[in-house]
Every structure is written in structure tokens, then in C-alpha cells.
TrEMBL record:
<dbReference type="GO" id="GO:0005634">
    <property type="term" value="C:nucleus"/>
</dbReference>
<dbReference type="GO" id="GO:0003677">
    <property type="term" value="F:DNA binding"/>
</dbReference>
<protein>
    <recommendedName>
        <fullName>Replication factor-A protein 1 N-terminal domain-containing protein</fullName>
    </recommendedName>
</protein>
<dbReference type="Pfam" id="PF04057">
    <property type="entry name" value="Rep-A_N"/>
</dbReference>
<dbReference type="InterPro" id="IPR007199">
    <property type="entry name" value="Rep_factor-A_N"/>
</dbReference>
<dbReference type="InterPro" id="IPR012340">
    <property type="entry name" value="NA-bd_OB-fold"/>
</dbReference>
<feature type="domain" description="Replication factor-A protein 1 N-terminal">
    <location>
        <begin position="5"/>
        <end position="93"/>
    </location>
</feature>
<dbReference type="GO" id="GO:0006260">
    <property type="term" value="P:DNA replication"/>
</dbReference>
């Protein structure tokens, strides 16, 4: 099944587009330990829109999708709800709150 990713969606999101519901691909997933003495693991993703790539943090309520293998490298997802913030003069997707798995 061929899937067309949403080319140039990542720069649009970084520049403030909160209404896009782009298709992106997960290129990498890294486990991050929480810094607040919590046992909660967090996942940092590297996402691609076929033109650009960018890091994003997965919301903790979606961790189970990674742990069960439903969400892995190569998975195509539609971003439905996300927040983009600045930190140390760089823009980040601070949380991916809602995803629709398209193809894994």
C-alpha cells in the first residue's frame, strides 16, 4: 500500500499551523527517562514528512502503543493533536497528543 506523506508539513507546524492533520513517518524512537524523579518513561520520535524531519515527544498516555509494538520505526501516522513549543531557541513538537495509525 503506497502512502503519500504530507510534504513540507513539519515546517508548517513549526511555523504555527495547528490545523494540519499531516501524514508522517516515524524514523526513530528513543526512550527518555523523566527528569522529575518519576518512573514514567517518555519517548522521543524522529518524524519525517518526506522532505523534512524533526524530533517530537510522545504524550505519556500513548506510551502503550510503543510498548506493545503497534507504534515502531517505519510506522505511518496521522498527527491529529499536537503542541509545538520553543525551548532554548529551538522549536519542538512538545507532545503528540493524538495519533491515528495509518500503516505499520
Amino acid at each position: 500500500m503506497a502512502v503519500n506523506l504530507s510534504a513540507n508539513a513539519i515546517p508548517a507546524i513549526i511555523n504555527g499551523d495547528v490545523d494540519a492533520k499531516p501524514l508522517v513517518q516515524v524514523l526513530d524512537i528513543a526512550t527518555i527517562q523523566s527528569t522529575k524523579n518519576s518512573q514514567t518513561e517518555r519517548y522521543r520520535l524522529l518524524l519525517s514528512d518526506s522532505v523534512s524531519s524533526h524530533h517530537a515527544m510522545l504524550a505519556a498516555q500513548l506510551n502503550e502503543k510503543v510498548k506493545t509494538g503497534r507504534f515502531k520505526k517505519g510506522t505511518i501516522v496521522q498527527l491529529l493533536d499536537y503542541i509545538c513549543t520553543s525551548f532554548q531557541n529551538r522549536k519542538y513538537f512538545s507532545s503528540l497528543l493524538l495519533l491515528n495509525l495509518i500503516f505499520d
